[in-house]
Amino acid sequence: MSAAVLREKVADWFDLDLDSPCMLLVAESRIRKMTDDEQALFGIDKLDIVRSSIPAVTHIDYSARVQTVHQERNPLYYGLIERFEHLTGCPVLINTSFNMRSEPIVCTPEDAFRCFMGTELDLLVVGNAVLHKPDQDPALKMVYKDKFELD
Predict the structure, then answer these.
(1) What pLDDT is stored for residue 145 in this prediction?
(2) Which domain holds residue 119?
(3) Are 9 and 67 in contact (CB under 8 A)?
(4) What is the CATH number of the domain that holds 82?
């Protein structure tokens, strides 16, 4: 997972002030640093520490993989993050690959719909279209759990 953040706010949240539109850079969080006692912990004991106000994207070492979002390049996504910031005070969303196990990453709206129908997701947004799972034809539901052997 990566932290999708408004480009002009990235340096407020991470030790980074560069473009990273393709999620290639990792940076430390500016929100909270590890204390000496926390640094002394080992292994699984570090998992119990609340590492930041954005824990879903904060790695165990207080870093995150960062994606900067620019208004000119991606106005819809930028607007979504901007609205989220207006509501919460946080200009950071989770960005992760969209695919099911052993499936390629979603590349088209058709891929997105097929994947959506095979997950427990309730809502799919593609461009300006908003799809609610209960409104979809149940015959299109896919069952991935029977397709692959579990770990």
Answers:
(1) 67
(2) 98-151
(3) no
(4) 3.90.870.20
